[in-house]
Structure formats: C-alpha cells, structure tokens
Amino acid sequence: MISRRELLQHSATLLSLTPLRLLASCVHSPTSIEVEPVTNTIRIDLRNPEYAVLRVIQGSQYVSIQHKRVSLIVTRVSSDQFDAVSSECTHHGCDVNLYDPLVGGLSCDCHHSFYAPDGTVLGGPAPKPLPKALTIFDGVHILKIDISTF
Ligand code: FES
After folding, report:
1. Entry pTM
2. 3-state secondary structure string, the chain?
3. CA of 124 to the centre of ligand 1 (A)
4. Burial 83-105 (b: 16+ CB within 10 A, else e)
5. What's the 107 CA to ligand 1 centre distance in angstroms?
6. Which residues contact 96 (CB under 8 A, 6 or more apart)?
7. Which one, out of 3, 84, 107, 148, has a CA that is 20 to 30 A from the CA of 122?
C-alpha cells in the first residue's frame, strides 16, 4: 500500500517530467522550411517561431533550398554548435530521418543506414558520409549555413 506522502512525491516527479516529455515530442516533429537565399549563405534567426525546434539541444529540422533542389537536416548538437547535412542518403538516395535522440543519430528507413548528426556513417550500407555544410552560430540567435558546396 502506498502512503499519501509517497503518492504526492510520485505525482510531483511525474509533473516535473511532463514538460520535458512534451518538449522531446516537439523535437521530433518534421518541419520543412523553404529558404530562398540570395547568396550562398542561409541566415536562420532562432527568434523566428518557424525555427523554434532549433532552440532546443537535439532539436532537428529540415531546411529545403528551392533553387538548389537540396534539403538539409539541421541539428542543434550543443548550446553553441549546429550540424547541417544533406538529407539524401548516400546509399540509394532515400530521405534520411531527422535526428532522433532516442537512437542518437539520423536513420534511413530504406536499408537502415545510420548517420551521426554531422553526416558520419555509423552503420548500414551507406558508402560515404552525408555531404556537410559549414555552420556558424553567433552564440545568441543567428545561425548561418554556407551552402556553397551544394
Ligand atoms: S537508401 Fe538509405 S540505406 Fe539505402
């Protein structure tokens, strides 16, 4: 039999975890943003609600570059570091999933290739890493992604 005090302690613990669980579920939401850069640099302002998922460490988001027909997976890997890689699997070109904190990487459902957020191959048949873009973060709100290599 559980005491009233234990019940209250368990309830408090569950309530304190609920926002984290909600936040974690938001981190997985696949969001695609169309970007039409004038130069070869994408400028992402994290204050923009469209990029809210990238305010959270392990947040991951698709960014589609229309004029280059490229889709990137941008992942916040720490408070001051982001990775941006092509979402096209290097095996046979399927779309790679967003970063999943539960498995610690980006997975491809077609034949189970598995990548680190920086595109490094961690498993599966992928013959080479996902192409990577240079990211520069000002440490506050602005993330710049150099897409000149795409
Ligand atoms: S296309 Fe991704 S593993 Fe085959």
Report:
1. 0.78
2. CCCHHHHHHHHHHHHHHHHHHHHHHHHCCCCEEEECCCCCEEEEECCCHHHHHHHCCCCEEEEEEHHHCEEEEEEEEECCEEEEEECECCCCCCECCCCECCCCEEECCCCCCEECCCCCEEECCCCCCCCEEEEEECCCCEEEEECCCC
3. 8
4. bbbbbbbbbeeeebbbbeeeeeb
5. 9
6. 73, 87, 88, 89, 106, 107, 108, 113, 115, 130
7. 148
Q: Which amino acid is located at 10 in the chain?
A: H
What domains appear along the chain, each with residue ranges and CATH number? 30-146 (2.102.10.10)
* 124 Cα nearest atom in ligand 1: 3
